[in-house]
Amino acid sequence: MIRLVDVATVIRSKNAGPYELTLDVIFKDSTWFRRARDRAWINEELIARLYGVPRSDVFAVIPFEPANAIKATIRRPRVSAAIGETDVYGAQQHAPLLSLEFDDVEQG
Amino acid sequence: MASNEMKILSPTAILGYGFPEESFALGLQRKPDVIAVDAGSSDPGPYYLGAGVSFTDRSAVMRDLTIILKAARDLDIPVLVGSAGGSGASPHLAWTLDIVKEVCVSIGYHAKVAAIDADVPRSTALDALSKGTLTGVIPEQETVEKAIAESTYIVGQMGEEPLIAALDSGARVVVAGRCYDPAVFAALPILEGFDRGLALHLGKILECAAIAALPGSGSDCMMGTLAADYFVLEPTSPSRVCTITSVAAHTLYEKSDPYFLPGPGGHLDLTETRFEQLDARRVKVSGSRFVPSDGYRIKLEGARKVGYRTVSIAGVRDPVFISRIDEILAGVRARVADNFSHVAADAYSLLFHVYGKNGVMGALEPVRNPAPHELGIVIEAVAQTQDLANTICSFTRSTALHFGYEGRVSTAGNLAFPYSPSDFKGGEVYEFSLYHLLEVADPTSLFPIRTFVVGDAR
After folding, report:
1. How far apart are CA B249 and CA A53, in angstroms?
2. Residues on chain A touching B252 (C-beta within 8 angstroms)
3. Which of A38, A49, B165, B252 is a good FRET partner for B237, with 20 to 30 A between their CA atoms?
4. Which B residues, 216 through 245, put their C-beta within 8 Å of a C-beta on chain A?
5. What's residue B368's pLDDT?
6. Distance separating alpha carbons of residues B85 and B38, to the nearest angstrom
7. Residue B457 above 80 pLDDT?
8. How far is the C-alpha of B313 from the C-alpha of B416, rounded, in Å?
9. Residue A107, CB half-sphere, CA atoms under 13 Å: how many?
């Protein structure tokens, strides 16, 4: 098993405007980035399941090669600072990503 | 083009967040052509826009502006401040201008200042709504008319055009209301004929100053050097470097799609962007393009008051209480509702934030059965009046303190309060009411410019 925390240097969340939450994973190097991208480790279904949101609320999962990064953006269940909302900046919503593991055996 | 290179100094990520004077001095030695700084963000939430107050501190902003304006005076270069006062509505702009005037008098800087308003009159927004030129960024916004009517302030994010007009009029200090963040960095380069896409992409990185460096910092300086077909980033402090990853990673920051970055009048296309490491400290960027849209759209932000807040903070250490937390809080909630059955149910909201369970992530929390040895509880009441919020919070707190539950052994009290008084008035509560696009015929028409001279000794 490959643990995401062992192959990524940055795992973070942040508002992308008050209505969206964006999750960034920046990999250690281009080798790990390409492996994660090519095997679709991080995909819409995974994000929906991890955060317990409908698949339609995951707007996009986008690899960004210059930063060795994969970005996922979801609809905030509550708008930033709406009554009952818990994280105005959206900066502490990354934790579910920290426990991700991938059963990914290096092939031939 | 006046010269083949332009240097833009960004002292800090947000005006008032500070910067080391040594770093700033090193930046000045490189002879920047302009100092630009972003003062705003919607991140701190709707309160600051709605209430018309800054999320930054006056003394801290005064400190930053004193150093910046002295440098601008000595080097005879322009200064641009965007999204003044954090949210960039009229009270925020006035607050910042007041500080600028005070600084200019105290340092003896006789300067022509341009102030650019970003307030959008309700009538303009309503008119656009009826003409179909106002559209929601997030589709399911109902009752936009009501939202417009209830918003205390509505601002539009100006592009670089009003800032260019201000510079063209001879202003040396430009203080703008709400801006598209990169605009203050891109205005002078675009005026001087540099490429719009490169200037705006550079601005996108400079608006957070040294956050794009390694180690990153929101309170240290970054220098951007723009040429005809590339730009170079370098932190001014020798203790930081720019790497391809630090710069490229910043391109991701707070954006939903790093290849497609929409802004006023079009979008930045980064699909052909190249990042190159020039040496240990500098990164070169090329290939970024600006693609104009059909029609020029300005993003509007609005906030409206939804009530008043009172909170009480307490801890719990009893294992039986912790194991029954959900049913106990449901019981407390029912007791409050029953006791205030004469108060309309929609006159208040009662919330429990349970830290140690799901206080941080709420509905997004995947951990279902935590086993904490202690919990923190924030009791929150939001009501139509401060008095009612106080009443609901106070009654909830006392009910929870002495609430009887099955298996209770600690019969003297359920909650540990760190403070006396235990309840805190949070005052007015606001929510975002508008996040819309307004189509305009002229990029400058919404943003009137006033110019005046400051710093007269008398």
Report:
1. 26
2. 22, 24, 26, 64, 67, 69, 71
3. B252
4. 244-245
5. 87
6. 10
7. no
8. 9
9. 5
Cα B298 to chain centroid distance, Å, stands at 17
Q: Residue B305 is which amino acid? A: K
Place of tokens 């927004």: B125
Residues in Cβ contact with B395 at an 8 Å cutoff, skipping those fewer than 6 apart: B336, B339, B340
How big is the A-B interface in CB pairs under 8 Å? 127
Residue-level pLDDT at B137: 67
pLDDT range class, residue B86, cuts 50, 70, 90: very high
Contacts A81 to B, Cβ<8 Å: 45-47, 430-432
Q: Which residues of B touch A20 (CB under 8 A)?
A: 256
> Inter-chain contact A89–B43, Cβ cutoff 8 Å?
yes
CB count in 10 Å sphere of residue A37: 20
- B211-to-B204, B206, B235, B263 alpha-carbon distances in Å: 11, 9, 10, 21
Among A22, A26, A82, select the one facing B256 at the smallest CB separation: A22
A10-34 per-position pLDDT tens digit: 999 999 999 999 999 999 999 999 9
E strands, chain A, where? 2-3, 8-15, 20-27, 58-64, 69-75, 101-102
Query: How would you write B176-210 as a 3-class SS string?
Result: ECCECCCHHHHHHHHHCCCCHHHHHHHHHHHCCHH
pLDDT at site B141: 52
- ipTM above 0.85 for this complex: yes
CA distance B359 to chain A (A): 7
The beta-carbon neighbor of B360 closest among A18, A20, A92 is A92
B248: closest chain A residue by CA: A67
SS3 B71: helix
Residue A108: what pLDDT?
44
Per-residue pLDDT reduced to its tens digit, B11-70:
999 999 999 999 999 999 999 999 999 999 899 999 999 999 999 999 999 999 999 999
Q: Which amino acid is at B336?
A: V
